[in-house]
Sequence to fold (205 residues):
Amino acid sequence: MAEGITAKKPTRIQLRNRKRILDAALDVFSQHGYRGATLDQIAAEAGLSKPNILYYFEGKEDIHVTLLNKLMDAWLDPLRHIDPHGDPLEEILRYVHRKLEMSREFPRESRLFANEVLQGAPRMGPHLETGLKELVDDTARVIEDWIAQGRLAPVDPRHLIFSIWATTQHYADFDAQVQVLMEGRDVHKGASEFLDTLYRRMLAP
Fold:
């Protein structure tokens, strides 16, 4: 871009259409995965023409990568908020409950993430190798320090984090199965109470 020339600010309609496309794509990708999704499906879900979709994005991969980039930032935020100076058990339980809330609030995003990882993370690899790994390494060191101080029971920090992901995101990724098996019970209230008890008993020093 030439010096002194600034990019034109997107109009309100352009911002609205872009959001509309991304929301439609989230539905399509979370249901069909990257390989099964098509631009035609996204256009139909958004109520826009395919050429209109291509005005805002270069193609299916551009839309998918945009969604993943937005998702990773939101997905990692609760892990960043674990306070090394807080009460160890309460900090971890706060993280567990926030991840469970996210599985209820953002089930499509959880399935989008799961589908990408199941395919070998071809578009998200750099995020896993840099941002995610660095954050998990930092969190693991905090947990190791708490264990060394006798403030948490001895556990492998990384397996603890994996366990939290598995026990919370399950409720989004396998929602259809959970709903059948729970037969109308309050799934998230029961899950919250169960996971609180589980991790308190496991981690109490």
Q: What stands out?
A: The chain has two domains: 10-57, 67-203. The CA atoms of residues 64 and 97 lie 28 Å apart.
